[in-house]
Amino acid sequence: MKVNRNALSHPAFFNRYVEMVGEDSIIDLLVNSFEKMKLDMLVIANTNFDYAYAENKWTIKTLIRHCIDTELIFMSRALSIARNDKNPIQSFDENAYATESIAAYQKEELIDELLHARKSNVLLYKSFKDEWLISREGRTDKGESISLLSIAHIIIGHWLHHKRILTEKYGIEFN
């Protein structure tokens, strides 16, 4: 099913991620994003994960950990919506998560975990009925609507956003 942009419903904050994603079927988009992410991780594997482009900015390690956390959080949100959970979707403070994520992570483990999280999102979305993508929505803790289809776009676009930052701020050249 090709994406109908009119079926997307999400808080305006997420437009910056959603607008980075194409208009193929959401499963094709997710599968392709996973394949591209695998290639991106080959590039990332050759970087210094302790590098930050400026003082008080995240290291590459922290940025990757943030992307993992976000993948997992949005996976949980998608699952809640798919299962018709009527509880509000809670926001999270990405900086507080980053502060609490400081640990001696191994580069290879972070790369593996990010790829596993994306693969899990692909498999989760493959388990959904097509009609759920446009008919199922949740409510945020601020009362805003967010659709299952929008969450998939946010998941894909979030990595693309950070990949652009890795290029522009950290000087990483992706293929």
Explained architecture:
- This protein is mostly helical.
- The chain has a single domain (17-168), classed as Four Helix Bundle (Hemerythrin (Met), subunit A) (Up-down Bundle), CATH 1.20.120.
- It has helices at 15-18, 26-44, 60-82, 94-100, 107-126, 130-135, 148-168, and strands spanning 137-139, 145-147.
- The protein has a two-stranded antiparallel ribbon.
- The longest helix is centred in the middle third of the chain and has 23 residues, at 60-82.
- The chain is globular, with a radius of gyration of 16 Å.
- It starts with 14 loop residues before the first helix and ends in a 7-residue tail after the last helix.
Strand/helix succession: HHHHHHEEH
Query: What is the average per-residue confidence, as pLDDT, rounded to a whole number?
Result: 93
Compute the number of helices: 7
Strand content: under 5%
C-alpha Rg, in Å?
16 Å
Which word captures the global form? globular
In the CATH hierarchy, what is the superfamily?
Answer: dinb family like domain
- Structural class call reads mainly alpha
- The first-to-last residue Cα distance is 29 Å
Number of strands: 2
Give the biggest sheet: 2 strands, antiparallel
Which regions have little confidence, pLDDT < 50, spanning 5+ residues? none
What is the CATH first-level class name? Answer: Mainly Alpha
Strand numbers in spatial order across the main sheet:
1-2
Instruction: Name the CATH architecture.
Output: Up-down Bundle
Number of domains: 1
CATH topology: Four Helix Bundle (Hemerythrin (Met), subunit A)
